[in-house]
Amino acid sequence: MSTGESALAFAGAAAPLSADGVARACGILGVGEAELRAVLAVETSGNGFLPDGRPKILFERHVFHRLTQGRHSAGHPDISDAKPGGYRGGAAEYDRLERAIALDRSAALDSASWGLGQIMGFNAATAGYPDAETMARDFAGSADAQVVAVARFIAASGAQAHLAAHDWAAFARIYNGARFADNRYDEKLQRAYERLAEDHPPAGMVDRA
Q1: More confident residue, 165 or 206
Q2: 3-state secondary structure 138-149
Q3: Model confidence over 16-48: pLDDT tens digits?
Q4: 6: how many CB neighbours lie within 10 A of its CB?
Q5: What is the pTM of this model?
Q6: Do 185 and 176 meet the contact criterion of CB atoms below 8 Å apart?
Q7: Is the CB of residue 144 less than 8 Å from the CB of residue 20?
Q8: How buried is residue 47: exposed, middle or buried, by Cβ count under 10 Å (0-12/13-18/19+)?
Q9: What does the buried/exposed string (b/e) look like for 152-183 if buried means 16 or more CB atoms within 10 Å of the residue's CB?
């Protein structure tokens, strides 16, 4: 990836989330809109794109360290280290990704979380893609592609039943990892769901009076 290309790398049509995309994802999961949107709200505040049209990402240096057996950690500790961190946020995460790509493209793409649901690149197959690069390119096209991938990932990972049951801790353990409680991920999910349920009640609870 050249410096000139980097500003536009992974940019696409960035079509916004549609009612059809949400309905497809909810259909895959068998949950209501509030449950799905709670996950998106906690991950990316419900917006999967940067202002320049690229999918939101977060580059995880500890994953890059693991996938490359620490080969680059001595010389590049900000993008390869056994401990998480080094985050810069927003478009600056693509600067970190670009540097990692120069060292190992496949491992770099696998080491970033992508889009609305912040799906890790190494989980691309669970989300229905052959690899992280294909997933990233598809995510650049539309938020609908992102949200359907979130649903596929949740269903395939075993977290679907926990989401439907509002067992936020069990869901968080699968979706966010074993250390989910460090940032109160389950509590954030519950609060987001309770807020969103007021606007998106289950179909059987809609007041038709």
Answers
A1: 165
A2: HHHHEHHHHHHH
A3: 999 999 999 999 999 999 999 999 999 999 999
A4: 15
A5: 0.91
A6: yes
A7: yes
A8: middle
A9: bbbbeeebbebbeebebebbbbbbbeeebeee
Token pair for 91: 């478009």
Handedness of CA 94, 96, 97, 98 (dihedral sign): positive
State which amino acid sits at residue 175. Answer: Y
Surface-to-core class of residue 201, CB atoms within 10 Å of its CB (0-12 exposed, 13-18 middle, 19+ buried): middle
Tokens of 166: 């509002």
pLDDT for 207: 37
pLDDT band at 200 (very low <50, low <70, confident <90, very high): confident
Residue 44 contacts residue 118 (beta carbons within 8 Å): yes
Assigned token pair, 42: 């906690």
At which residue do the structure tokens 């794109």 appear?
A: 49
For the purposes of burial, counting CB atoms within 10 Å of the CB of 65, is it exposed (0-12), middle (13-18) or buried (19 or more)? buried
Backbone angles phi, psi at 120, to 5 degrees: -65, 145
